[in-house]
Write a structure and sequence with these properties.
The protein is mainly beta. It has 1 helix and 10 strands, in the order H-E-E-E-E-E-E-E-E-E-E. The chain has one domain: Fimbrial-type adhesion domain (Immunoglobulin-like), CATH 2.60.40.
Amino acid sequence: MKKYKIFFYMLMMFNFSLMSFFVNAKEGDTAVVEVKGKIFVQPPCHINNDKDIKYEFGQVVVSDVGTNKAEITHDLKFVCDYSPSVQLFLTVKSPNSIPSITNAIAVNDSGLGIAFFNASYNDTEVDMNSPIKITDGTIMSLTAQLINYKPGTELKTGAFSASVILETSFP
């Protein structure tokens, strides 16, 4: 067993001596470059301190649908765990979007819908399923307004509910 160890050590010494021959070849100088780092998923951003956002309309008179009497505005604060000034995108998502009204979702088939507006930016329409730019640490006012997306039809009376998902993403 000792013979094999001695042979192994001698073979290794021979290889190391040859290494210097090949390293000093006429092809030029060489250097070892070490690259280190970490890749991670962007840390989360929190909307409204991770609290549910509720637009509770209560009782609404049919004639108020489509007016400022049937709208609610909430301030939403965006805070990210990683960077205090990162550029963000906010997307309001829903499978119930109305193709003819890009900033609204259908609540029922009689024509009741909810339209969304960015009250922080001159009440511009917030297109469903399309990202809008926001900045970490800012407050955005999001308005929800009841609308009749089938003008000329009579809205059904009764309770209603709907939901959307607010999703932040990075460029």
